[in-house]
Amino acid sequence: MTLPFTLLIDPVPADSTRTNFDDTFHAIDSNAPALRVAELSTQRGDGIFETLSVVNGHPQEVEPHISRLINSARICDLPVPHPGQWRAAIALAVSQLPADGELALKFVLSRGVEAGPAPTAWLHATRASNFEAVREHGVKVVTLDRGYPRGVAERAPWLLMGAKTLSYAINMAALREAKRRGADDTIFLTTDGYVMEGPTSSVIIRSGGVYVTPAPSGAILHGTTQQSVFEYLEAQGERTEYRDVTLAELREADAAWLVSSVRLAVSVTELDGTPIPVDAELTRAINAALLARTA
Ligand code: PLP
Predict the structure, then answer these.
(1) 3-state SS of 185-203?
(2) Per-residue pLDDT tens over the stretch 226-258
(3) Domain 132-291: which CATH class?
(4) Cα dihedral sign, 152-154-158-159
(5) Is 202 in the pocket of ligand 1 (CB under 6 A)?
(6) Which first-to-last residue range defines the signal peptide (predicted)?
(7) Distance CA 125, CA 262 (A)
(8) Residue 186: is its pLDDT beyond 70?
(9) Could you say which of 110, 123, 198, 245 would form a disulfide bridge with 7 (CB–CB 3.0 to 4.6 Å)?
(10) Helices 224-235 & 62-75, crossing angle to 10 degrees?
(11) Which atom of ligand 1 is nearest to the CA of 199?
């Protein structure tokens, strides 16, 4: 099967006792029209998604991605996905895809068609961009105000912070703003000066020899890559910690990374115009370990 590859999915309820989902999957021509105009995913960005990486035929971190999809569905009051159906959809896609190189596999659950009874869902696989240079050389980062104080997710759950919704227009606008400021990427801050995450990545810093990431409260995503990186570091005997990170601490970090499923770990080389220390050797080791995962 050639790329891109697209599979339409008829979502089944989470409590379905089915074990075979073959008749709920329909492979389609990726260039063919597939969504109706009244789709709420396109009309309102009202849906959720995940993007996982497939490396040399191995889908990465399937269970954490499915768990996060389920968590996003709960936050958004969407019908809870059936984990077995999504596992089967990913397995079917992977069985049809080229078994070499790095692929990005995006799966989407939308509220469906306006006035329609059912959610819509699909999976779309493409070859990943070539991130070798950025993994080797890192990114310049500016910090940007996310516009909310710490604790907002608990006070205002309707903001859907902590859900991976399709409404990424703000995230993309922040990346454009970073580029306007001469940087490659950005780290969001709360209005009271705490580190959150990047628009498409989690933040890890090394501070006093400990690897720290902001606690995945309701306001940021719990990154699947960040969890893999922590597992790798712990296996090397390193200390890891989830806690609040202030902007001052980020500025003084021994090293900092942005980590995400497809780009993997990239060093932050500059923060708001000031160079910060880079651990190129560790970054290479982390990426080698991430690329060697078979699950
Ligand atoms: N935070 C945000 C807002 C993201 O969009 C992403 C990934 O796209 C991440 C964090 C990193 O998550 P993961 O490592 O699971 O890709």
Answers:
(1) EEEEECCCCEECCCCCCEE
(2) 999 999 999 999 999 999 999 999 999 999 999
(3) alpha beta
(4) positive
(5) yes
(6) none
(7) 12
(8) yes
(9) 123
(10) 140
(11) 3
Residue 189 has a CB neighbour count (10 Å cut-off) of 21
Atom of ligand 1 minimally distant from the CA of 262: 16
The rounded distance, in Å, linking the Cα atoms of 16 and 166 is 26
The pLDDT value recorded for residue 1 is 67
Contact 294, 58 (CB under 8 A): yes
Whether 221 lines ligand 1, by a CB cut-off of 6 Å, is yes
CB burial of residue 11 (10 Å; 0-12, 13-18, 19+): buried
Q: Is 197 in the pocket of ligand 1 (CB under 6 A)?
A: yes
Would you give the end-to-end CA distance of the chain in angstroms? Answer: 22
The closest residue, in CA terms, to atom 10 on ligand 1 is: 201
Element (H, E) at 94: helix 83-96
Q: Of 3.30.70.1400, 3.10.20.310, 3.60.15.10, 3.30.470.10, which CATH number belongs to 5-127? A: 3.30.470.10
pTM of the model: 0.97
Bridge partners, 241 (sequence order): 212
Determine contact, residues 125/103, Cβ cutoff 8 Å. Answer: yes
The answer to whether the beta carbons of residues 148 and 219 sit under 8 Å apart is yes
Q: Is the CB of 228 under 6 A from ligand 1?
A: no
